[in-house]
Predict the structure.
Amino acid sequence: AQRVTQPEKLLSVFKGAPVELKCNYSYSGSPELFWYVQYSRQRLQLLLRHISRESIKGFTADLNKGETSFHLKKPFAQEEDSAMYYCALMDTGRRALTFGSGTRLQVQP
Amino acid sequence: DGGITQSPKYLFRKEGQNVTLSCEQNLNHDAMYWYRQDPGQGLRLIYYSQIVNDFQKGDIAEGYSVSREKKESFPLTVTSAQKNPTAFYLCASSRGTANTGELFFGEGSRLTVL
């Protein structure tokens, strides 16, 4: 069965510090991975997907098949990055997402 | 104003009662989903529908039922058989039957069983 693990419930950093939100997955096929974000009083929304290899709001994520990881990184955190972040894996059979338990990022001034 | 609308935002229910949560979308999306969100557990898939008049069980479907009679609507009924119904429920939709991974979420409905 596929699984997404986010080992940290809370990550607290100071403004300007680097950020790395960890995500590990288990999946037998070719994985499609995503990061979703929920800012305070806003809806859950897509941040980025690995196939796009894009940088959104300064965040990047690289799929490492050897380590089965898809960590989200940003070199310099901003206070507005404070939010709940979820890693998600596509179940290609069902075409539905499996989410991790989420990590709350707090960026302190 | 386009998007996903869930209602009600807050709902209280006595034990033994069924309750239906509404989810409506005007995005012309084919696929719709229901997730349950509990603290520390992330989102868990309850039911999903890729097309009108068809739906499938997710990972935690026991005690829930759905219908998909219209493309725009995907109501979720929490039945008295659901042992721990108190939770936050999220509805989502996506374009096409081949989900690209971009889900559009509603604001959620919080159900509390008294």
